[in-house]
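Researcher: Let's run the pair from yesterday's discussion. Sequence first, then tokens, for each.
Model: Starting with the first of the pair.
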Amino acid sequence: MRKRSSAVEKLSLVESLTKDVVDAVELLELGAADKDDAIMNEVEAQVPALEARVRQTELERMLSGPVDHANAIVSIHPGAGGTESKDWGEMLLRMYLRWAERHNYPTEIYDTSYAEEAGIKSATFSVKVPYAYGTLSAEHGTHRLVRISPFDNQGRRQTSFAGVDVVPVVESSDHVEIPDDDLRVDVYRSSGPGGQGVNTTDSAVRLTHLPTGIVVSCQNERSQIQNKASALLVLQAKLLERRRQDEAAKMAEIRGDSTTSWGTQIRNYVLHPYQLVKDLRTDVETGNTTAVLDGEIDEFVEAGIRWRRRAQ
């Protein structure tokens, strides 16, 4: 029934778009026949919105993977480089949250571990909208920043790295059973911004999956029970993604396919000596670095979807 509902919704969207395009063409023909500038201007004003809807429909058609429809869990981990990399991690976190905000996509921050001087040690959040995973999956990889360090009193140029990890949210049908014996549960006090109740009670939860060593923490909620439930959701998603990657690796070994490479540098953000953001896979680039870091990354996201589809 869920698949049927999704198919009916897609069909309805295509039928609506087709009708609007046909209406615009008929209006255009009418305006041309009558030489009516007002009608021609009306049609011209409709074109950008129609183009955007066609492009969005085309992109959604490309999101046909088995888990592309799922919500996404995004984790950001600064690389080596001390305060510089931790600050870069926080800049990336803001960039993705601003991108989601621009599209009115609901997000939920599960855990943010703040660094001592500036930036973050890690952060995990979810984007709760259909096809969030398929849309953001190409953002998975290493992001490189080049700039004049605001933390260096000599004003030297620094290079920083941060990893972005994107996994799909586990659905009930994809549930991963986790025996209690495989979990170590640690509780501790939340840190960073928050109310008095959050920071003075042992409500934060850290789960360690003993067989794999995967560690997940959550401190967003006041209740220890709620934090544990959210942490379990993230852990299940990571275990499912690991299982999916293991299966893909086995298939690649059988086929002799060695092109898969996780954690490689995918995008450069250069703020000095010139302004440029360039994706190394798609060659999409822009000099408006301020806009990109403020969440205007649709061009890179769309190009990433097309790149992933070609790679598949």
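Model: Moving on to the second of the pair.
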Amino acid sequence: MSQSFIPISEPSIGSREEELVLAAVRSGWVSSIGEYIDRLESVFANFCSVKHAIAVSNGTTALHLALASLGIGRGDEVIVPDLTFVATANAVAYLGATPVLADVEPDTLCISPSSIAKNISTRTKAVIPVHLYGHPADMDEIQNIATTSGIKVVEDAAEAHGAEYKSRRVGGLPTALSLVSMETK
């Protein structure tokens, strides 16, 4: 019996996508700045119902940038789910901080708020809930724990574009530093 590979998603590239890629290449601006980057940021911010969006090269870069902006560094701990792409923990380690693994919920595969609470120490500076496979994490409970504990929340919605938590798009939830990536990790 042969097994077939079943992808999580498949690209849909048609003539319009080819036309836009060619136009971007011909413009000479394929990264950092230019008409298409500005348009992407504007459209995506609107899609997530947030004021600003900043395009970066990938989800790892987004996480690294967000953690660095919070001053995360050597000696700090950041709680991450034990089921996620390795970039979540790597972004923490790149800054010299320690990723602390928390269990996930069996129904959503997202980080467990009770496991977050159990893993908080005096060195914990942040938690990264990852909205996995379109399932939002329990952000109300996570935010309550973070507020009570004085830690930051870095919301990672790279694998949940368009998913909603209580009628708000993930990646645009209030009180969290929200991160989304246009590239699947």
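Researcher: Give me one sentence on the second I can quote.
Model: Residues 40 and 65 are 19 Å apart (CA to CA).
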